[in-house]
Amino acid sequence: MSKRLQDKVVLLTGIGSGMGRETARLFASEGAIVVGCDINPQTAAETAKLVESDGHSIDVVAPVDLSDRDDVARWIDGAAARHGRIDALYNNASLPRFAPFAVQSDADYVFTIQNELDLVWRACQLAWPYLVKSKGAIVNIGSGAGMQGARALPQAAHAAAKGAVLALTRQLAAEGIAVGVRVNSVSPGVMNTPPVQAMYREFGDKAPVAPIVERTLTGKPGEPIAVAWAGLYLTSDESKWVTGINIPVDGGASSIM
Predict the structure, then answer these.
(1) β-strand partners of 188
(2) Where is the signal peptide (predicted)?
């Protein structure tokens, strides 16, 4: 490996599975000091074992409830105290609830906003002073749902939250220019993660995401490592003159009718 993140202290949320797990493994292999968190200690520990089996190390804190400001502050401040600095924040974690717009409950809508938008806002705000000191970077994980509607997938709350994440990314990039903080986003399409796997097991070819997947390069869900590679570029010094952008990693689904 080229060690594109050598000695950078990177905060990474949601390391317990899927894209977060693959990002943790990739970033550690590229020399980063990854300070990962997850609400599930068991899955976080599984990720730590995988990173160690790769021949690398990771600083894991779990459980961390990203809906609790004090919990997030303890995680971020603790990372800075242990490692002396924070160079990047990578907001991967999310926990949406899906239902048709006409019937989705207020409780599920609020839950989705709290666990897809509020947790990004909170982590960015609490990490911001450290990133100002290091002239660091933020990478937020958006979604294709923040750019396009989907006829077959009932995702109004998810779309609202992720659309807001993309807008927040642009505004933080604008405010970050004065203090040297770069802020960008990556928007995955339908990825081969546990929730998507479960959907295909239940519905097969009739899965609500199938019409989106059909438009991709391979006709299959993407692999989580593809998102991690895009995030690696935006976290590394290779992108030091890049801020305020969104990179769709969706196999072309957002561009091809």
Answers:
(1) 249
(2) none
